From TrEMBL:
Pfam families: SDR. Belongs to the short-chain dehydrogenases/reductases (SDR) family. Signal peptide: none annotated. Keywords: NADP, Oxidoreductase. CDD domains: SDR_c. This is Short chain dehydrogenase. InterPro entries: NAD(P)-bd_dom_sf, SDR_DHRS6-like, SDR_fam, SDR_PhqE-like.
Length: 289
């Protein structure tokens, strides 16, 4: 048996975590938790303003971070991924942007004393646009075009990210890719066929990628309703609060999920070198009532 060392359980100490969608919500929570665990963190977002605000907040919480928190602006949205200056083939735009991100991020954490680059060990995908609710009705907005646009962050981006990650992550069980799904994968609701389809697909995708990308580990966090700004953008403030009240009534914990709770799933899946093809669920027990 290998003797225990003081760092046995400090599995993220000096590791490099790349968080795509790390400037808000769950991604910002993973960034904070990773820094608290001694990791280097790069947050990627389409908004420089949000990146700056998040980094400023984290530096306020952890004044001695030094170069451990950095940010990269990258727009991975559907519209930006169909056209890009210098890339003539639309099919290459998204992939090239991700390759560039993987090449730039390791250079950001070098210090004046060394030019050594810090390779990426873990990739977290929390980036998403507003949720799409398209009931199956005669007046529905559910069309091939809306399905394609809505699928970008939840089907296309995860798969292309996996393709690129496989080329950049060290081939080891200490490397991981973690996707983000939702409880609709297990408990659909009326009017949510499209979103449930995506949620279930992400769970299946993580398992398939775990087989294909071994020994790199691939997992997924399956979150219930979490108190983040995503819901305001999807529903508006009034409907958001109405939904949250309903969640509190149904939940066995009597409340909606908090970022600091659900983030623990991402932390487990990064730390546990034996977890791959796994689902970390955090939903307040709504799946069993």
């Amino acid at each position: 048996m290998t003797p225990m060392t003081p760092t046995t359980y400090q599995k993220l100490l000096n590791k490099h975590v790349l968080i795509i969608g790390g400037s808000s919500g769950l991604g910002a929570g993973v960034a904070e938790a990773s820094l608290a665990s001694g990791a280097y963190v790069t947050i990627a977002s389409s908004s420089q303003v949000k990146i700056d605000a998040t980094i400023a907040r984290l530096r306020g919480l952890y004044p001695d971070l030094g170069p451990k928190i950095q940010g990269v602006v990258v727009d991975l949205s559907f519209s930006s991924s169909t056209t890009e200056a210098g890339i003539n083939d639309p099919d290459r735009v998204l992939e090239e942007k991700l390759h560039h991100l993987f090449l730039v991020a390791p250079t950001l954490h070098s210090s004046p004393e060394t030019t050594e680059q810090r390779e990426i060990n873990h990739v977290i995908l929390t980036a998403a646009d507003a949720l799409s609710f398209h009931p199956l009705s005669s007046s529905s907005s559910l069309t091939p075009s809306t399905i394609l646009a809505a699928s970008h962050f939840r089907l296309i981006l995860p798969l292309i990210l996996a393709k690129v990650s496989a080329q950049h992550l060290p081939p080891s069980s200490t490397s991981s890719l973690t996707l983000t799904s939702g409880s609709l994968a297990e408990k659909p609701a009326p009017g949510c066929a499209l979103t449930s389809y995506f949620a279930g697909g992400l769970v299946s995708l993580a398992k398939a990628l775990a087989v294909e990308m071994k020994p790199v580990r691939v997992n997924v966090v399956r979150a219930g309703v979490v108190d983040t700004e995503l819901w305001s953008g999807s529903l508006g403030d009034n409907k958001r609060e109405e939904m949250m009240r309903g969640v509190r009534e149904r939940s066995l914990t009597g409340r909606e999920g908090k970022v600091e709770d659900v983030v623990e799933g991402y932390m487990w899946l990064m730390r546990d070198g034996n977890a791959t093809g796994s689902v970390a669920g955090s939903d307040g027990g709504v799946l069993i009532v």
